[in-house]
Structures
1.
Amino acid sequence: MASSTPTLESLRTKNRLYWLLLAIGGLVAMAGMYAVHMMESHGHIITGMNNQIVWGMPHVFAIFLIVAASGVLNVASIGSVFGKAIYKARAPLASLLSIAMLSGGLTVLMLDLGRPDRIIVAATNYNLTSVFAWNVLLYSGMVGLVVVYLWTMMERRMNPYNKMAGIGVFVWRFVLTTGTGLIFAFLTARQAYGSALLPPMFIVLSFAWGMAVFHLVQTSIYMWNEKEIAPAILQRKKHLLGVFVLGSLYMVATYHFTNAYFSHQQGFERFILMDGGVYPSLFWWGYIVLGNIVPLVLLYAPGIQRDRWTALASLLVVTGGFALLYVFIIGGQAWPLQLFPGYEVSSTFADGQISAYSPSIYEFLLGLGGLSIAFLITTVSVRVLNFMPQDKPYIAD
Amino acid sequence: MKFLVSLLMTLCISLAWAGEAASPKLDIGKGGQCVEDTQWMRKNHMHLLKHGRDDALRRGIRDEKHSLKNCIECHASTKDNSVIAREDSFCVGCHKYEAVKLDCFECHSGTRKSAWLAQRNKK
Amino acid sequence: MSEIDIQRRQFLKTSVGAAAVAIASGMMLYSVAQGKSEGASSKVRWGMLIDTNQCKPGCNDCVTACNNENGLSGGTLPTDSQWIRKIEIKDISSGRELSLPMMCQHCEHPPCVDVCPTNASMKRADGIVLVDKHRCIGCRYCMMACPYKARSFVHEAQHDQNPDVPRGKGTVESCTLCVHRIDVGGKPACSEACPNKAIIFGDLNDPNSEIAQKVHSVASVQIRADLRLNPGVRYQGL
C-alpha cells in the first residue's frame, strides 16, 4: 500500500473539505426536515402518493437503505463467521455502514407515516400477527446487536466475544431481510407480491447492494487517506460483488419467470416487462443494463483493473437497485387488483385501471434526507473513530 | 456555571411565590356541574375520555353520559356551538394555558351535535 | 420570565401532584358509571346481501347517501376518500353487464387486521371491521393488504365532520357499516337509500332475520372467495 506523507497544507485542505462535506450533508438533511414539516402540516396531499399508489418514493429510498444495511454486514460475517482476515479488517466499517443506513432508512419510513407524532403507539400497542410489528423488533434489535458487535471488535477486553457476536449478527440479518421480504410476500391479494420467492430474493439483493455500497465507501476512504487498496484484495472484492450481482439477477429472473408461468399472472408480467411505459424502461434499462450488465462488464472485462472502475460498477449496482425497487414497489401497486377475474371492470376508484403516479419533490427530499443521515453518521464516525481497514502485510487465509 | 445555578434558584423561588394562579377565562357553554364534580372533572376528564374511547370503539360499549359528544353538547359555546373555535373556547382555552396538546379534534368534530344536525338539515 | 409562565408552571405542578390520587379514584368511579350500552356481541354477525339484479347501472344513490352520512366530500380524485363505490362489470366472454356497489367486505379473517402493526385495524365482536384512529399511525399497510381496495387514506386536514363519524388527516378509514347507526338500532345509510332495496342488511347469525333466510335460500357468492376471508358482504346474481 503506497501512501504519501501528509503535509500541513494537505491536512488543512482536508479539514476544510470535511466540514464542507458535513455542511452539504446537513443541508440535504435540513431539506428533508423541511419536506417532513410540509407533509406534516399539509398532509400527504402534497406528495404524489394517493389511495391507489399508497407507498411511493420514500419507501423506495427506505427499503433500499434497509436492505443494503443488512447486506453490507456480509463483509463482517465473512470475517467473523468464516474467519477471513481481509474481511475481518473491514468488519468495523461494514458495521458502521449498517447502523448508518438502518438509521437513515428507518427515519424515512417513520417520517412518512400519516401520524409520525404517534410513533410511540407502535411500541405500546403491538400486534403479533403484523410483519411490520415484527420488523420494529428486528430493526431495533439489529442496531443493538451491531453496536455490541462493534464493541467486541473495538474494545480489546471484549475481543473473545467477537465470534459470538459475529454469529449473532449473521443470523439476525438473515431474519431481518426475510422480514423485509415478508412485508410484500404476505400481500396475497396483489399480483406483484404474495410470493414465497420474495424473502430469498431480498436476501440475495441485499448481498449485492450492501457490497456495492461498501465498495463505494471504502474507495472514498482510501482516496481520502491517499492510499491505494492492494490489488489482491480488490480482486477478491470485485469477484465477490460480481457473484452477488449474478446471484441477484438470477433471483429476479426466477421471480419473473415463475410469474410468467401462471396464466393469471401473465397480464401483470406483460405490464411490468413490456407495455407498462415507465416500468419496463426502468426495469430493462435501469436495472438490467445499467444495474447488471454494465457493472458485470466493468468487473470482469480484462484490462480494467483500476479500483475506480470497481467503484463505478458499484455506483451502477446501487442505481440499478433503486430502479428495481421503483418497478417493484410502484409498478406493483399500479397494476389493478383483480376482484372479478374474467370481467371488464370500471369505477370511480380506478378499478380495472392502471394507476398513475408522479412523485413530488417532497418525497425525493424526504428520501434524500434519509440518505444524508446515513452519510452524516458515516462521515463523522469515520473521522472521529478508526474505521480505516488495517490490512496485515500478509493475507493468506 | 455559577450563573446557571443562580438562575435556577431564582426560578424555583419565583415558582414557589406564585401560589394563587389565575386560571384562564373560559367560555363554559351551558356550564355548571354536568356528569361529575367540577374539580374532579378538571383532573380526570382525560381518563374518562381515554377509557371511554376504547370501550366505545373497540367493544361497542357506548357510555352516553361520559362520551365526548355529551361533553361538547354541554360545554360548547352558546355563541358558536363549538368547544374549539376560539381562543377562549372551553377545550382550547384551558389546553393553551396548560400547554397540553389537544389531539381529539384532529378527527372528532368540536361542534354540538344538535347544532351540526340542524345545519345539515338546512342544506 | 413572564407572569403567565410562572403561573403556568404552578398550575402544572399542582396538576401533576394530584394526578396519582385522581387516576385511582377515577377508575373506581368510572366502573360504576351509569347509562352504558351493552356493547357488541359475538352472537351477532352483521352482514349485507347485495342483489346485483336489482342494482341499476348508473344509479349512485348508495354512494351519495354514504358520503352525506359520513361527511365525505364526494370527490373522485385519487386522493379523495371513497368508502363505497359503484363498479360496472362486463363479462368478457358473454358480454353480460352488471353494476354493483363495493365497500369494506367486513371479513371474518380480515388481512387489514392481520397486518396492522398497532392493532388499530380491528374487528368488533359483531364482525364489523373498523379503524381505531386513536391508534392508527398512518403506515398504510392495511391498504396494501386489502384485496377489495376498500380503504382510503385521509390526505388533508378535515373540518366540520359529522359528530358521529370522526375522520382525520393522516389516518386510514373505510366503511364502518355505519356502526353509529347500528349501535342505536338503525341500519347502514347505503342500505336505507337504495331505491330498489338491493342491499339487505342484517344479522347473518339470526336464523329469523331476512338476510339469513335469503342467504339460506338463494345462491350468493363472496368476492375473492379463493382467499378464504369469509366476508360478511355477499353478492347475489353475479
2.
Amino acid sequence: MTEPIEEVQDSVQRVARGEAFLDVRDLKVHFPTDDGVVKSVDGISFKLERGKTLGIVGESGSGKSVTSLSIMGLHPPGVARISGEIFLDGQDLVQASREEVRLLRGKRMAMIFQDPLSAMHPFYTVGHQIIEAYRVHNKVSKQVAKKHAIEMLDRVGIPQPDRRVDSYPHQFSGGMRQRAMIAMALSCDPDLLIADEPTTALDVTVQAQILDLIRDLQREFNSAVIIITHDLGVVAELADDIQVMYAGRAAEYGTAEEIFDEPQHPYTWGLLGSMPRIDRERSERLIPIKGTPPSLINVPTGCAFNPRCNYAHLNGGASETDRPELLDTGNGHMVACHLSPQNRQQAWETDIKPKL
Amino acid sequence: MTTTDAESTPAVPKIGEEILSVTSLVKHFPIRKGVLQRQVGAVQAVDGLTFNVTRGETLSLVGESGCGKTTTGRLLTRLLEPTSGEIVFEGRDISHLREGQMRPLRRDVQMIFQDPYGSLNPRHTVGKIVGAPFKLQHVKTEHGVKKAVQELLELVGLSPEHYNRYPHEFSGGQRQRIGIARTLALRPKLIVADEPVSALDVSIQAQVVNLLEDLQEEFDLTYVMIAHDLSVVRHVSDRVAVMYLGKIVELADRVDLYEKPMHPYTVALLSAVPVPDTKRKAKQERIRLQGDVPSPINPPPACRFHTRCWKAQDICKAVEPPLVELAPGHQTACHFPENQGTETPAAAVDQAKS
Amino acid sequence: MLAYLIRRLIGAVVLLFIVTAVTFSIFFLVPRVGGATADDLASRYVGRSVGKEQIHQTAERLGFTDPLYVQYGRFVKGLVVGTDYNYGPSTEHCPPPCFGYSFLTQTPVWPDLVARIPVTASLAGGAAFIWLVTGVGTGVISALRRGSVLDRSLMSVALAGVSLPIFFTGLLSLSIFSYGLGWTAQGGTNPLDETNPIWWAYDLILPWTTLAFLYAAAYARLTRAGMLETMNEDYVRTARAKGLTERDVVLRHGLRSALTPILTIFGLDLGLLMGGAILTETTFSLPGIGQYAVIALRANDLPKVLGVTLVAAFFIVLANLIVDLLYAVVDPRVRIS
C-alpha cells in the first residue's frame, strides 16, 4: 500500500526524532472509584516497529488489557485518567482529539478480542459487519465493500466466502468466528494490530490454526502486532519481544529468547514454574507463586511483588520501601527488581533453572 | 486393569481395585422440530464409552469442545440420566437410580465445577456453603458443624476465620478452594472435577493443582478429571482418555499417551499445544488439522475423525475402528495407528508432514 | 420457520377458544354456582310488575333454561356462523361474528364494537407513537449521560409518570390546556377520514399525551436499563474499535439490541390498550371500547361485557403472535432455532 506523501514525511521526521512506530512512554491509566483510585496501569513504556510482534504477558488485573484499550482510545471519556504519551507513527494519541483517534481506529490500528461470539453483533451478518468496518474509512459503494469483505474472508481461510459472507456469527464455529474477526480487523490494512487473548476461547487445534494465521498475515501485511495473553506458550509462538506485567507495571522486558532462556525477574520465574510443561520431563510438583495478586487500589509499597517473592529478604528492606525501576541489564533486557546481579544469577542457576 | 507407572502413583493400599466401571455409555439429547415436535435427530453427546476407574488413580478425559467430556462427567455423577449403557459404582449399577435412591451415593461421588464464581451462592456465607452437605445428608459431626467446616477450610488452605465471609470477598483461587472444601465435607470416594483450574490465573492454577494432589494422597481420593489443557492433564493424570465427538479414541497410561500417542487425533492435539520455548517456533514441526470439530448432531460416519485426518483411507469412512488394546494398557480406535513397533513420535510427525 | 408459524397460529386459536370458555363461564356459570336460577337471570330483562310465569317464559325464550354447554355451544356457533335470538314477538338475526345480543338495548353487540374500535385504535396508536419516540429517546439519552444531572432529572420525571394515575394527569391537563388556556378540545372525537386529519389530531392530542406520558415513563426506564447493559457488550466495543462514529455505535449497535425486549412489551401494551383504555376514554369522553365496557358494566349488561372481554382477549393474543414473529425478524438467532 502506498502511503500519502504527508504520512511518509511524518514517518521520516519520526525516525529522525528517534521514535519507534508505536512508542509508549510512561503510560498511566487510573480509574477513580468510590473505594479509591484503581491504578490499572502505572507507568509503562515500550516500543514496537512495523513487522514486529510484542507479547504482553500477565495475569488478570495486571493491566495488560487496559494498556491495549488505551492505545485504541477505547476507555470511555471521563472514566479513566490517562497520562503519558502514546505515539503512533509520530502522532500522540493521548493528546489527540477523540475524533482524530476515532479516524485512526480500524484504519491504522485495529483490534481482535478474546471471545469472537460476544465481540460480534448477533443481529448482523458477518459480511455486514466487515462491510461496515471497511466503509467507515473508505468511501466506496456497498457492492465494492462486499467484494472486499468476501476477499478478506477468503484470505483468512473461510471456505465458500461468497456464501458465508451472508451468515450470522452464531452460524459460524468458534474458529471461523475468530477468523472473521481477523478479517474485519484487517479490512482497512492497519499498521498496528492488537490481539487481546485471541485464542483463549478456542480449542487447542483451532488455536494453533489462528496463531499460524496471525503470523502469516503479519508477514503479508507487515503490520506491528501486540499480542496480549496470560499463556506463555502463545507468546512464545508469536512474539519477538515480551513484556511481563505485574500490578500495572512492567516486571521484565526483553526478547522472547531472553525471557524464556534467561528470565531475570522472580515473578517471571514464578510464572514459568507454575505452568506444567508438555515439552519437558514431568516434574513431581508444580512450583506455585505463593499468595494472590494484589488489589490495584492498595498496591503493596516498594516492589508490588514483594509479598509473594521468595527473594525479597535479600535486598535489605528495599523491596518493601523502594519501587524498583525497569533497568537495562545489558543488551536491552530490562528488569524491575532489587536483586543484585550476583544474587539473581545464583537464584536462577541453583533454585529455578534446574526445576523448569 | 493395569496399574499406573511407579513414578507418580501415591502409595494407596487399595490400589488396583475397581471403583467405577462404565460400559457402552450413551447420552443422546433429542432434537425436536416441526408442528408436532417430532424427534428429528439427536445430539450424540456421548456415544458408547467403555472405561473403568481404579481406586486412588486420576483418570482424565480430554478433548475439544463438543467431544462430550462434560456430559460424561454429569452422567458419572448422575446429574444426567444415560440414554443407555451402564455405570457401576462400587459394584452397584447406578445408571438409572432415582433421585431418592441416589442420595446416599451423593456422599461418595462429588463434583468440582469449573466456574468458582457461578457455583457458590453469593448470599450464603462460606460456613453455610461448606456446611450445607452435612445438613443435606443429615450427617452428625463430632464437635458440631462449625468445627467441621473450620477444619475443612484449614485443609484447603483457607483460614478458619473465613467462616462468616461471603464468596465475593474472595479471589478466584480462594473460591475454588471453598468449592473444594464443600466437595470434601462428606469424605467422598470419587471426585469428578470438571475443568477445576481452567478459570484460574496461571500462578493460582499451580496452587490448586498441588492442593488436589495433596488431598488425593491424604484421603485416598479417586479423581475423574475433565480438562482441555493437555499440559495440566499430563501433570495430574495417571491415565488419560482422549475423546472426540462423543467417543474415546485413545485411552492409555499417561506416559504412553504423551510419549507414544497412537491415534492421529492425539498426535495432532499434542502437536498443537503451544509451549513456552522459542526454539520450537523455528522448527515448525507442526501437524495442523484443517477446519473445526464437526457437529455432534450429525457426526461423520464410521471413524468420526476421518474428515480431518491426514491418514484417512476409504475404510475409515466405511468401517468404524473399535477401541482395542494395541499395546499393554494402551487402547486406540484407529485403522492406521501411529507409533506402532519401531516408529518414533518424531518419525510419525515427519511422515504426517509429508 | 413455517412450522413455527403454524404452531403459533394453532396455539393462538386454541388460546382464544379457552378464553371464550373461561369468560363465558365467569358470566354464566359463576352466578349459577352462586345460587342464581335461570329465572333470576331473566328477571332483569322484563318489566318489574310481571309475574313469575312470564319471567320463566322469558328465561326459556332467551335459552337460560338450557344446560350451560348448550348455551356455550350456541354462543360459539354465533361467533362462527351467526345465530338467531328469539326476542319477544320477533326473531332477531345476529350475523357472524355474533358476539352476543344485548337484551337490554335490544341490539347485537358486534356492530357497537365495530363502531368503537376506530376510536380506541386512534387513541392507542397515536399515544403509542408518542410514547415510543419520547420514551426510548429519553432512555437512550439518560443511559448515555448516566449519573449526570440530566439523567437524574429525566428519571425523576419518569418516576412521576409511572406513579401518577391517568385520571389525575388527565384532569390536570384538561383543566390547564383545555378549560384554562383553551388550546385543546374538551373531549370527544372526530372520526379520521381524508378531510379532517387536523381535527382528528386536535381532539386527540391531549388524551394521547396523557396516556403516552404514563407509558413513556416506563419505556424510558426500560430503555435506559437496556442501553446500560448493551453499551457494555463486547460487540459495542468492537463497533468502537472499527472507528464507527459514536452515533452509529449507539444507534446501530447499542440501541438495536436494547430494543428487542422493548418490542415485546410494546406489542403487549398495544394489544392491551386495543381492548380499551378505560381511564383515558372515560376522562376525555372518548366513545371507545373502554367507555363501552364501563357503560355495559354499570348496566350489568352481560352480553356486552362478554363481547368487550373477547375483543380485548383477541387483541392481546394477536399482539402476542405478532411480537413473536417480529422477534424472529429482529433476532436472527431466533429465526434459525
